[in-house]
Amino acid sequence: MLAAVLGLLYLVSGRAVRSQDAxxxxxxxxxxxxxxxxxxxxxxTGNRVQSSSPVEDELRITIIQLRETILQQKETIVSQxxxxxxxxxxxxxxxxAADESPQGKSRSQGSRRKxxxxxxxxxxxxDPGDTIxxxxxxxxxxxxxxxxxxxxxxxxxxxSAGVVSALSPLPQELRELLRQRLGALESQLLRKVxxxxxxxxxxxxxxxxxxxxxxSALNSLLERITELEKSNNAFKSxxxxxxxxxxxxxxxxxxxxxSLPEMYAFTVCMWLKSSASPGxxxxxxxxxxxxxxxIVLIEWGxxxxxxxxxxxxxxxxxxxxxxxxxxxCITWTTRDGFWEAYQDGERLGTGDNLAPWHPIxxxxxxxxxxxxxxxxxxxxxxxxxxxxxxQFNMWDRVLxxxxxxxxxxCSAYMPGNVVPWIDVNVExxxxxxxxxxxxxxxxxxxx
Length: 447
Fold this sequence. Notes:
Order of helices and strands: HHHHHHEEEEEEEEEEEEHEEH
Largest sheet: 7 strands, antiparallel
Structural class: alpha+beta
Distance between the termini: 153 Å
């Protein structure tokens, strides 16, 4: 633009020289004040002389317009340079943030940075047309870089606040996709937490059950140890003892600590030795509230041995009053009231219709050596047992004959599942005593 102005001035000056040469005029050189327009004539005193030539006026107007155009373009260029600098700084931040994305994206962005890495703020061309073209290309390049960055932008929580402000908001589709993905992850997390809680609860329940079983086993062992510690040290084992009832009185007796459950059958076995007459008395009795004679085994006076169930009587063909050890077993079932009587392993009698369909009531008292007129008391001396008892066991079922034979010949040991013969389960009163006894050895010696 400056070159065009100088060329125009040169043409004007040349035209003036040619005009003066044609008329034979001469040039007069006048001083021009500083900052004054060179195309305007001045007098020797420095005052501007108004030209009346139309050509000169037209040229002067053109020069003024060109000058104003140059100033405006300079201002526009300065403003655009500031805008370009600001855009460049934002692009640098955006591209730096894009470096944190996955490597595949980083490589593509790196190639783009190489492509756009040229200095867009280089020296501007001197020609105003070229300057405008260069500014347009620069703006287009910046716009393309922004679009590329926006298309490569990934949702990330690691982007700083400055970078987020430099980028446009996420599209609606991406926001919805991100929301759905976060919802799915939250659902998976909650489901996993619920599964862990359930597993924890199951593990706690299993641990509690295992602890309960362990504690029950330990308590059983402690009870057994306590029973063994309380046992008479003279006994080789808790079951190797006898109860001696030497007088026919109403105050000598033994008592079983355990009671009976409700039963629909039973087997009672014992070893006994007696030479009393008439009748050996009552080896045992079981009374419950409302029925003192729920189960009774008695030989009274000259009568045979009798079995009472619910105060109903059956006579048994047993004979044990010879002063020797005898093993006797009695079985009964509520079905038709069927009963069996064994002596020394041999079945000597059976019968039925003994309190049929009557269940044995629970919660009563078992007394050794006395017949009860009320539960646990009011004994009659004439019905007392005189002799020795051992291995009194009860089961809530009918034993097989082979089991009874094994007990009688000492070839099997099978304690009762309802009442076992154990030292700690037997109490003695009124002068009755407990003594060590190995029944099989003593029986062999007695024979």
